[in-house]
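cache lookup: miss for this entity combination. No prior model stored, computing from scratch. Input as submitted by user K.M.:
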Amino acid sequence: EADIYQTPRYLVIGTGKKITLECSQTMGHDKMYWYQQDPGMELHLIHYSYGVNSTEKGDLSSESTVSRIRTEHFPLTLESARPSHTSQYLCASSEWPASREQFFGPGTRLTVL
Amino acid sequence: GENVEQHPSTLSVQEGDSAVIKCTYSDSASNYFPWYKQELGKRPQLIIDIRSNVGEKKDQRIAVTLNKTAKHFSLHITETQPEDSAVYFCAAVSNTGNQFYFGTGTSLTVIP
């Protein structure tokens, strides 16, 4: 079944650690996104990609980086986690360039101690 | 760039009443307007959308209206039920590149 998958679903980690949040989609979509969202609050776009080898920064200043080596895979890396990074991270994908629905993954809830 | 404003931020209604959430946008190039529902602890999911060539769209108890001239669109939920309780997000999508601009969300509570 076509879907978006995120791992891990929950992560508790200490300050200063490097972490990578995984996102994979089997939707066949070119465009992918990463959002940061505190529970029930606004969605903040932190990175997006139009396709392989394309990465763009979003509106929210972030100390994270992304890569897009394969169409279906869009990992997010935090080089040095801080308590301010504690949040939920949502991956999403959509067709491009047509204006169509954006599909979300289940999210990774990150806690940095 | 696009700027989407959403009101109200919180809304409480009695079960069976109607709920209305309003959004405005700034960029006349936006041509696609989806609404997402996010239940507690779950991912946002599309519930209804409308394109700029249509003024109204309905799906059972939910409807969306679009006024292109005034640059505003609204979500209407009739005969609300407790399972409608969630956070609702509107979005405006540009006609180039499928760039999504989300509103700040409305937390809807339906009181049994």
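stored under new cache key. Chain A touches chain B at residues 31, 33, 39-43, 45, 50, 90, 94-102, 104-107 (CB under 8 Å).
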